[in-house]
Amino acid sequence: MGAQYYGADSEDGDRIDDPSEDALFMMISDLNHSDNTFVVVRPDEDDPVWFASVAVLDEGGYEIVHSDTTRNEHEVTTATCIDDIARDLTIWMAARDFPGQPTRQVRDF
Questions:
Q1: Could you tell me which of 9, 35, 48, 106 has the fewest CB atoms within 10 Å of its CB?
Q2: Exposure string over 80-94, b if 16+ CB within 10 A, otherwise e
Q3: Sign of dihedral through CA atoms 86, 36, 49, 6?
Q4: Residue 64 bridge partners (DSSP)
């Protein structure tokens, strides 16, 4: 059985279905400059409408890309703190729409 919502794949072939913030932290921590330079997170479907990626930068730190075609979003940032990157990815992905799932609505109480 595949991911219910999304999967995280690294260049070295590791995959985690529906990764938690801690799992994303571990995957990003495992990145290096030789054979595992990026992690991509996207819905578990043939033609995903959104994705996020984290890649190691030569000069240190990480490049983070958030892209969502349904919301016309494409943002590229850099960061050095893996805790912050994993938390921000988790929050960003929680706001995405998932195929076959009800659209999420935010309400003020």
A1: 106
A2: eebeebbebbbebbe
A3: negative
A4: 54, 77
Separation in Å, CA 105 to CA 67, 76, 91, 95: 20, 26, 15, 9
Over residues 11-56, the pLDDT tens digits come to: 999 999 999 999 999 999 999 999 999 999 999 888 899 999 999 9
Please count the other Cβ atoms lying within 10 Å of the Cβ belonging to residue 47.
Answer: 6
Name beta bridge partners: 10: 39
Model's pTM, two decimal places? 0.85
Running DSSP on this structure, what letter comes out for residue 102?
Answer: P
| 52/61 Cα distance (integer angstroms) | 16
What is the DSSP annotation of 8-59?
A: EEETTS-EEES--HHHHHHHHHT--SSS--EEEEEESSSS-SEEEEEEE-TT
